[in-house]
Amino acid sequence: MSDSGAAPTSDGAPPADAARRLVVETSTDGTAPAHPVDGAAAGTVGAPAAGRRAGPVGPTCAGRGRAGVPLRTSVALGVLAVVVGSTALALGMPSRDPFLAAGDRATGTYLAVRADGDQAAAAVLAGPYQERPGPPVPARGAGGAADPLSASRPLVAAPAAPSPAIGALFSPGDDDAPAHYCTASVVHSPDRDLVVTAAHCVHDDGFRTRLVFAPGLHDGIAPYGLWVPTRIHVDPRWISDRDPDRDVAFLRVRRYGRADSRIEDLTGAERIRFDAPAGRPALLTGYPADQDRPISCRHTAEAQGPTQLRFRCPGFPNGTSGGPMLTDLERDSGTGSLIGVIGGLDEGGDDLTSYSSRFGGAVAALYRRATADPPPTPGVRPRVAPRS
């Protein structure tokens, strides 16, 4: 979530009642598991709960950023930041994040440096995480008809079983701490190497250069390996003004430590759908930043004006940004049609409501650009992008 203001709906109503945001507070304690999709065992559908978005993003969004910071505290922090920044300049120290790169701002593209991804993945494995092979994934369309999605009861994000195509996104920093801070999912592409998340998860005053995706993550185990970007694609309008209608990113990925596999072959993939009508039942899933298992909720993906989707289900906290919004889930494979990711207005919403940029023509063009790039040639080091 960011500190950007949310736009009103097309009928003039505000996206969330300001007074309610100040009064209502949702806790992750004591929530009951969501009911399974018809035909599926309880807890077998990946799902998110409480809190929100990328850890290092903006204030005032309950659960997704820094919720409820008093004005006096904000002012004090602002003054402190100015003092520290001035001191850094006076001492000749860099004031920018060393793990950000400028990339190509005109196209919204970053060509990753191999060593950055390898170092980030090694940092994750040096912490409490390990790779351990997971079960084979059923093929999509192998007799797994989609069942209607009924709303979760109670209507709150609740713990869910991991889904192979959905995972946690890490970005180790100076201390190499391997905490995950966003969610991403595998989406079908011709080269079977594409991951989708929110743009604010990968670009914030520069492209994050140390990213690691762990699909199907659970209990400290990465059952389908660790994957790092080879290229990152965002809309240039996200870079120029953080346009909430462009809060989507696609990552081409390779497996850390191995060059003989494509992620979609191991995890399966969601099928991306553009211009999906609003008002359909959907499943929303994400990984809270403080949990190694996902949470989820089933409800309706409503229209929030012509360019955003709104999902009214409380309990999605920090870390769930980038989580997929799915319809038409297949009974056997568990994959579905991807119509959005947690992001957009307020960089995903608050603890009561989640948003997504609509997957229309602009996102379709971004997807085509991401999939048009040739896959990286094994053994060839990509050119180094300038650091910001």
Q: Can you offer a commentary on this structure?
A:
With 388 residues, this protein is an alpha+beta fold. It has helices at residues 18-23, 71-90, 114-126, 199-202, 236-241, 263-267, 361-372, and strands at 100-101, 109-111, 130-131, 158-159, 166-170, 180-187, 194-197, 207-208, 212-215, 221-222, 227-234, 249-255, 271-272, 280-286, 295-303, 308-312, 324-327, 337-341, 353-357. The strands form 4 sheets. Strands 4, 13, 14, 15, 16, 17, 18 and 19 form an 8-stranded mixed β-sheet that branches. The protein has a 7-stranded antiparallel β-sheet with strand order 2-11-12-7-6-5-9. Strands 1-8 form a two-stranded antiparallel ribbon.
C-alpha geometry: globular
Unreliable spans: 1-51, 55-95, 378-388
Task: Give me the number of helical elements.
Answer: 7
> What class, by secondary structure content?
alpha+beta
Mean pLDDT level: 78
Number of strands: 19
Please report the distance between the alpha carbons of the first and last residues. Answer: 23 Å
Sheet-strand content, in percent, reads: 15-25%
Task: Give the oligomeric state.
Answer: single chain
Rg, Cα atoms, Å: 20 Å
Largest sheet: 8 strands, mixed
| Helix and strand element order | HHEEHEEEEEHEEEEHEHEEEEEEEH
Secondary structure: helix percent: 10-25%
